[in-house]
């Protein structure tokens, strides 16, 4: 599926292992990432364990560590530490295989100059019109499928719901959801899948109803 995160650099080519069979659990420990400018970021001594179907919220005061985590989980950047998917170290798996299992739903998701339907269908090109329409309905995106959109004409909540529709169409078993807009978005994203919710809103009124749907809430650093 199509995703967009702050990418530091492409992962170097190496021999890879086959994707293990599901259901998929995730474990992250001692994570450290070096950005191209030399800055080293990570999650400190925080360990994340997500059995299949678990809903975990990661609340951070800044975006650096959580952005690095998203880039690592999508295999867009190398890392130090331990990150396993189904018991296999993530660095030993091919990026394209990992992205068939893990998807990202973010507010800054990439939008191509095409129709809403074409943008959603990028997640699964063989999907028919009914499947695309169903994904749009479940994601709560009310724009007609034949509406022409681009980076300038769709933003905010609609852009994130476009990303959610892609994830629903791809039917990824693990979804990273960044700064969700409403409770409905969270419940839709979490249905029948593992959810890693990344948010920077815990101190903002209205965040508590979203977090109450999580099985676990992990706080990173000092909140503003």
TrEMBL record:
Cleaved signal peptide residues: none
Question: What's the domain of life for this entry?
Answer: Bacteria
The residues covered by the ABC transporter domain are 45-181
Question: Do you know which InterPro entries this protein is assigned to?
Answer: ABC_transporter-like_ATP-bd, P-loop_NTPase, Type_1_exporter
Annotated GO MF terms: ATP binding; ATP hydrolysis activity; ATPase-coupled lipid transmembrane transporter activity
Q: What is this protein called?
A: ABC transporter domain-containing protein
